[in-house]
Amino acid sequence: MNAMGLMFLILLLSFGVAALWNNIPFVKTAVHTVLDPSAGVLLDWNATWGMVVITLIITLITTILQKYLTDQDTLKTIKEEQKLVQEELKLAKDNPEKTMALSGKSMELMMKAMPITMRPAMYTIIPFVLFFRWFNDYFIASSAKVMGMSWFWAYLIFSIVFSSIFRKILKVH
């Protein structure tokens, strides 16, 4: 099975776990047993700061995995090529034939980068799904808000900020 097929299989498995969360009690119980006394304590202490700390830890782990489970040199080369193609596309906007050729090259580069960047996701998607299902259970039960917004939007905003910082510091491409 190729890397994309394996990624698709893991993605289907994770969606299955998410969909059957309430129907697979041992998974739900196991996740709550681990996360209630750890992440739950942080959120009980202060929903906003707890979410900041949890998101920081999750984002740091995923950024480190991305750095060390991908071929950074190849990704850097592909991104440099993509940047050149984008610049050529801007210059060739009046030439439809050249624009089509450059768009094809850009798509080819994206398809070349996709399997490289998806590799860390194979290791993190199931834990993410379990964490997100736990977050949902926690915030429904506590009806807490994070800075006046739902946990999902808070997580998304914090993870974008932390990811940008960690990617710069760790020089992740």
Rounded to an integer in angstroms, the radius of gyration calculated over CA atoms is: 20 Å
Structural class: mainly alpha
Strand content: under 5%
List low-pLDDT spans.
Answer: none
Order of helices and strands: HHHHHHH
Name the average pLDDT: 89
For the record, give the distance between the C-alpha atoms at the N and C termini, rounded to a whole number: 27 Å
Describe this structure in words.
- The chain is mainly α and 173 residues long.
- The chain has one domain (26-170).
- It contains 7 helices and no strands.
- It has helices spanning 3-19, 25-35, 39-45, 47-69, 72-91, 96-142, 151-170.
- The radius of gyration is 20 Å and the shape is elongated.
